[in-house]
């Protein structure tokens, strides 16, 4: 496992990072979740990502349980705040009240005195930006947070935060962005990535496998494999089924010879693609079984030649989405290449 600096900061994170969105506390049983974390540690993964909203706190609790007994200084724990965690008017957003209360609740569930990276899960139009930035800065000064980040912010939102932090004289700045990013979904490339590279903000890319689509396990004209994400109940299928269509799946299968040529699985090729993009510090993987963690971690250190990257672009062609306007609407917008979904 290789480690990279998180943006311009001195913090080193494992280039394969383990996350538990839609798994721990939701679609994956406790024992399987604990086994996945053990597999991650065995693979050399030291960075673990979660959020207060995942399974309404159960994901943080499971991660805290899984890491109990592990030397705290040997791992990096990241979590997030913003999305609704209750029915009250202040159980959401980036107000000082919610940020402070959510941080304390996350620390309690994780069983730690501090988190290495605290991220604004989305932008909050209903809270003055200075209120949010000062609250985050105070958490750093209190020793409860080491570094600050955001997730799915647009370039103008990031620019505003960076400029305002400078005006306020805040010493603790944003060093990380967590966007959805993979071979098919590249909406951060026109605006977000250039800004982040110029400002020293590193990318922790989630969904590098496009909800499993880029693993090649879904085939055109066939039902989803038993036990796969698209075959489950709950929220998981909502995200993956929106991109399943024969046109897309036929193209994805054309990536298989490229993966064979570099001697890796299609999943490893997809993860390596993300890690080979400029400005990316880590690929954030999830798993329901420990063997998935082990396989995906096998992409660490894999450098893809320029001709391989070019051929991937040629195969996917017009299915690649680069519309920067979709960054803020990621959770609601259906990609163009999903229009052919059956």
Task: Give structural notes.
The protein has 342 residues and is α/β, with parallel strands linked by helices. It has a domain at 11-212 and 270-306: NADP-dependent oxidoreductase domain (TIM Barrel), CATH 3.20.20.100. The chain is built from 12 helices and 10 strands. It has helices at residues 30-42, 58-66, 96-110, 129-141, 155-168, 192-199, 236-241, 246-253, 256-262, 266-275, 290-297, 306-316, and strands at residues 3-5, 12-14, 16-19, 47-49, 76-81, 115-120, 145-151, 174-178, 202-206, 280-285. An 8-stranded parallel β-barrel has the order 3-4-5-6-7-8-9-10, surrounded by 5 helices. The longest helix is centred in the N-terminal third of the chain and has 15 residues, at 96-110. The termini are far apart. The model is unreliable at 331-342 (pLDDT under 50).
